[in-house]
Amino acid sequence: MQVIDTEARIRKQIAENPVILYMKGTPEAPECGFSRAAVGALQKVGKPFAFVNVLQAPHIREKLPKVSQWPTFPQLFVNGELVGGCDIILGMEADGTLQPLLEQAGSEA
């Protein structure tokens, strides 16, 4: 029963938030270097984003990799789609594709 509830909660969070980052810690206090780097890239764009601290939500931390087919954290979702983890976020920041993606987030809904 818990697994179904957790998966439904994850899908609801992804559907309701145009930009959501599943991370270790919070944007103000990331608890791993990868989460810190991902938050830094998102904050440079300046568009607000939701987050879930997977360290405070062990059921989500356990279930999300099965839902997203992505094994590690952080995980960034934009408009309901998995973008990827830290390396992909930083790569998109470097090549200039992160900002336009985030700026149009939510406009397709």
UniProtKB/TrEMBL annotation:
Instruction: Work out whether the entry's keyword set contains Iron.
Output: yes
Q: What is this protein called?
A: Glutaredoxin
Q: What organism is the protein native to?
A: Azotobacter bryophylli
Say which domain of life the source belongs to: Bacteria
Q: Which family does it belong to?
A: Belongs to the glutaredoxin family. Monothiol subfamily.
- Keyword Coiled coil among UniProt keywords: no
Which keywords accompany this UniProt record? 2Fe-2S, Iron, Iron-sulfur, Metal-binding, Redox-active center
The record's annotation in Pfam families points to: Glutaredoxin (PF00462)
* Glutaredoxin domain sequence ranges: 19-83
Q: Which CDD domains match?
A: GRX_PICOT_like
